[in-house]
Amino acid sequence: MDCRHPLLDIARSYLREFVAPQAAQIDSDAAALQTALKGLGERSLLALRVPQSESAPEFNEESFRTFQEIVTRYSGALAFMQTQHQSAGGFLAKSENEALKEEYLPHLATGKRLVGVGFSQLRRQGEPALVAQPVAAGFLLNGYVPWITGFGCFQEFIAGATLPDGGAVFGVVPFVESYQDAGGKIIFSEPMELAAMASTNTVTAQLNQWFLPKERVLFIQPAGWIHENDRKNVLQHSFFALGCARAGLDIVEEVAKTKQLPFINATFDALDRELLNCRAGILEAYRQPDADRLKLRAWAIELACRCATAAVTVSSGAANYKHHAAQRVYREALVFTVAGQTTAVMEATLSRLIR
User: Fold this and answer.
1) To pair with 253 at 20 to 30 A between CA atoms, which of 21, 37, 95, 217?
2) How far is residue 191's CA from residue 333's CA, in Å, rounded to a whole number?
3) How far apart are CA 33 and CA 285, in angstroms?
4) DSSP symbols for 202-215
């Protein structure tokens, strides 16, 4: 696959010139993060999973993964935030609800419509967190969504709720405290106090008798869909880990110029080679159905953590300052260790650590 898409050059230029110098502020300040997200929208970079027009070059899978990797390299918070919207765009593009697609798709790339996602609860075992009861002309939603990113930025989010037969319905609901005449309501918590990427304003939602009309439904998926989807797409989150690893190595490389200690250069060279090999292995796995993708995902996660530790080590005591670049990357490695985690990914990650 060829990932030399012109939009990638636009993204690199924007990320280096605007985002990189403000990475610390973007990590802690929601307004700064939203400004950075707006910048991606101004460059039509927010709907890369939505089919391009016939006159535009195709943005294929490798191009999209490369984009995710380079955004993470310069700001983990921006990468995490924009991927929520990109995921929503991908869901909308696959919907058979033509009216909903017509309403949203033309406005996603520029960020004129910003949509988040809230369906990670479908991965949880036991009693469903959010349930959907079929009623005339739609569904009644009851329960909670434990993780939604982008409160105060995204106007709506796509909720996933479990049906009585174990399937799941996905629909667009407001991302602001809302009440319906029939008594339905959506209430949100205060933003969580997260150790990393607090600027993403991640919240929980409580839905009581919320009526989701069929006009706001994207699609219905069968029981077990999300687990099969996770297995099929186990490598997707690897590119965040690769970008985080590169961010750590950027710090190591920069410090090597000032401290001029041979062992720092040797460490950079070794980790840089490993990162290139890991990335090549992951890209090759997309072409090899029998590849051990879980091992590759675990390798990328461990590599991100080791590169972040290397960045902390060469930065010495300064790395303990909250807004130091090495501190930020170290915290981001934590996030990308557990983002999109399944039990199988957890096992593979731990196996990698004790091999």
Assistant:
1) 37
2) 21
3) 33
4) -EEEEEEEEEEEGG
Residue 298 sits at the vertex; the CA angle it makes with 9 and 234, to the nearest 5 degrees, is 70
pLDDT of residue 192: 95
Q: pLDDT tens for residues 270-316?
A: 999 999 999 999 999 988 888 899 999 999 999 999 999 999 999 99
Q: Hunting for tokens 């292995």 — which residue is that? A: 281
Q: Apex CA 114: angle with CA 187 and CA 15, to 5°?
A: 125
What DSSP element (H or E) covers 173?
strand 168-174
**What phi, psi does 160 have (nearest 5°)?**
-115, 120
- The answer to pTM > 0.85 is yes
Partners of 179 in the β-ladder? 185
Contact 344, 234 (CB under 8 A): yes
Rounded to whole angstroms, the Cα distance separating 15 from 207 reads 37
Q: What is the pLDDT of residues 89-107, one digit of tens each?
A: 999 999 999 999 999 999 9
